[in-house]
Specification:
Structural class: alpha/beta
Number of strands: 13
Strand order of the largest sheet: 2-1-3-4-13-12-11
Largest sheet: 7 strands, mixed
CATH class: Alpha Beta
Helix content: 10-25%
CATH architecture: 3-Layer(aba) Sandwich
Distance between the termini: 13 Å
Number of domains: 1
Strand content: 25-35%
CATH superfamily: Class I glutamine amidotransferase (GATase) domain
């Protein structure tokens, strides 16, 4: 059986090679490209991202990446966002008083974390919802974060008629050494074909590798 094909979208954001290698190790045949047709045709699309929200959105638009994301999701085709690649999936981001429009796949705003120490950097546990496929077998593991901004409020409303497979499953994490000491934020989302993580699975050791395998085997 052939390995699933995955495109890691090259839109000028950093950390592309490590994401490419990690997804390859998870069992996919990976292409690193900005080609829109290849991004559309692959079994899965990975949207990485590091740095500022506005810069990532500018880079994404320069290769029409937001169109590839939107068209894939309209056809029920899987997309995985990582770090700022997750943040840009939301409606907007606010950094240093500057508001930037995101892809708008989910409602919500990316804003500075309200924590005593920022950036939030290092290994942290996450609160995984029941029924998660992305975190199957690794619900109690730690993952590697490095970010100063995040989504602090999940606002997407669904109704009882939404199929269970498309009900969003939101994983949370919290800055600080103990519960209640820091700021709570969205650590990952599973929403039908669209998944995303605020942490870096490619830097999260065995747990991150298993998460990527879970995603690749779902393609």
């Amino acid at each position: 059986m052939a390995s699933p094909s995955v495109v890691v979208l090259d839109y000028g954001s950093g950390n592309l090679r490590s994401a490419e290698r990690a997804v390859e190790r998870a069992g996919a045949a990976v292409t690193l490209t900005s080609d829109l047709d290849l991004a559309m045709d692959a079994d899965g699309l990975v949207v990485p991202g590091v740095g500022a929200f506005a810069a990532c959105m500018a880079g994404l638009r320069s290769v029409r990446g937001e169109r590839a994301i939107g068209r894939r999701l309209a056809g029920g085709r899987p997309v995985l966002g990582i770090c700022v690649g997750m943040q840009i999936l939301f409606e907007r981001g606010i950094e240093h008083g500057v508001e930037t429009e995101g892809c708008g796949e989910w409602p919500g705003v990316v804003e500075r974390l309200q924590a005593p120490i920022v950036p939030h950097m290092g290994w942290n546990t996450v609160e995984v919802p029941d029924g998660s496929r992305l975190f199957a077998g690794i619900e109690d593991e730690r993952f590697y974060f490095v970010h100063s901004y995040g989504v602090r409020d999940w606002t997407l409303v669904t109704n009882d008629r939404t199929p269970d497979s498309h009900q969003p499953r939101v994983t949370w994490a919290e800055t600080g050494a103990a519960p209640g000491e820091g700021d709570r934020f969205v650590a990952a989302v599973e929403n039908g074909p669209l998944c995303a993580t605020q942490f870096h699975p490619e830097k999260s050791g065995d747990a991150g590798a298993e998460l990527l395998r879970n995603w690749v085997t779902s393609l």
